[in-house]
């Protein structure tokens, strides 16, 4: 397999993967169950849910004025969560890609494999 | 389906009830005491530091886009709470998925990114307990999940789809159970709730949530196995020449 072909197949994989993630985050997020989840349910059943900090540190961050949990503030409810999903998915994609780019060495030379 | 009717469908009726905070296994601030917070931060930071070193030493550029895609997919999937009989819900944690595709080292970095974005941008999971959340949901999935998956897969047959699927299913389910039990222990040590009660309650729900984790993990991995088996950290032999692997060590 030529290098160019490998590269374009990898690009296609990345685009398809990000596309699937965006479809899930934008179009499926409104269908998510609203029931309390595992720990949430346990904290209600065992009556310790009131221990959760009222004024959590995250609410001091500037993002709190933009997002209320997974909902963009100030837009109709039907699109608040899909937009949060879109932003969050792109943010995690970019951050993970960026960290990978920083940490993984650039074009690895063949000698890299032989060092090990 | 055209976008406009879909948006109307989404915003009608059942969507009007208030959107509740989803926590899943995401611990909020206030549930854990200072010593537990400190220990889990130290463990999380140590494992992240080791992972950074290993990724630097062992991984090749091919892994970078896969890290982005993996993080994006796990973030998106974590938004989708699936119903659990009895009025509870659960969602994918994704550590075993990340571990199978990227190995435990880059997988750890991906999971860490997901929990940071959730806590900092979306107030999901506390900031003071972020170390515990990264440790419980991310690192247990990537390390325990990966090594359990690898042991089972290689025992059944490295190149067999069935080996991969069985290994991933068992590891995904087990990683959720282990994470839930460790979370219960942290709650008990913090004096939030008695140990036996906490473990019983957490285990009961997460037995079922783990089945959802296993199902999503297996579906995603089988799809990738069929389309791009070379994307696996331990690719099936013949699917790929050694040069194309994302990581050299395993």
Automatic annotation (TrEMBL), chain A:
Pfam families in the cross-refs: PDGLE
Give the highest taxon in the source lineage. Answer: Bacteria
Grouped into one coarse class, the protein's main location is membrane
Q: What keywords appear on the UniProt entry? A: Cell membrane, Membrane, Transmembrane, Transmembrane helix
Transmembrane segment boundaries: 12-32, 79-99
Kindly give the InterPro entries that the UniProt entry links to this protein.
PDGLE_dom
* Cellular component GO terms, alphabetical: plasma membrane
Localization of this protein: Cell membrane
Domain named PDGLE is located at 11-104
This chain belongs to the protein called: Cobalt transport protein
């Amino acid at each position: 397999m030529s290098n160019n072909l490998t590269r374009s197949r990898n690009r296609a994989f990345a685009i398809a993967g990000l596309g699937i993630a965006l479809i899930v985050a934008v179009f499926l997020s409104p269908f998510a169950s609203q029931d309390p989840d595992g720990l949430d349910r346990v904290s209600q059943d065992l009556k310790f849910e009131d221990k959760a900090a009222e004024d959590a540190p995250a609410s001091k961050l500037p993002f709190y004025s933009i997002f209320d949990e997974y909902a963009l503030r100030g837009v109709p409810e039907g699109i608040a969560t899909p937009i949060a999903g879109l932003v969050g998915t792109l943010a995690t994609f970019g951050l993970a890609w960026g960290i990978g780019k920083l940490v993984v060495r650039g074009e690895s030379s063949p000698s890299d494999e032989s060092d090990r | 389906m055209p976008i406009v009717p879909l948006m109307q469908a989404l915003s009608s009726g059942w969507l009007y009830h208030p959107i509740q905070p989803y926590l899943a296994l995401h611990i909020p601030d206030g549930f854990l005491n200072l010593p537990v917070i400190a220990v889990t931060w130290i463990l999380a930071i140590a494992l992240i530091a080791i992972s950074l070193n290993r990724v630097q030493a062992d991984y090749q550029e091919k892994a970078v886009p896969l890290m982005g895609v993996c993080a994006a997919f796990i973030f998106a999937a974590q938004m989708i709470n699936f119903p659990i009989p009895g009025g509870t819900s659960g969602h994918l944690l994704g550590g075993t998925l990340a571990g199978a595709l990227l190995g435990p080292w880059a997988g750890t970095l991906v999971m860490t990114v997901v929990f940071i974005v959730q806590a900092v941008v979306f107030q999901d999971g506390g900031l003071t307990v972020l170390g515990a959340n990264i440790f419980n949901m991310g690192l247990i999935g990537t390390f325990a999940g990966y090594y359990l998956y690898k042991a089972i897969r290689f025992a059944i047959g490295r190149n067999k789809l069935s080996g991969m699927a069985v290994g991933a299913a068992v590891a995904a389910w087990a990683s959720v159970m282990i994470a839930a039990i460790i979370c219960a222990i942290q709650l008990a040590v913090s004096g939030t709730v008695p140990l036996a009660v906490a473990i019983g309650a957490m285990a009961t729900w997460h037995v079922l949530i783990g089945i959802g984790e296993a199902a999503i993990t297996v579906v995603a991995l089988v799809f990738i196995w069929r389309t791009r088996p070379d994307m696996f950290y331990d690719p099936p032999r013949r699917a790929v020449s050694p040069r194309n692997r994302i990581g050299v060590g395993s």
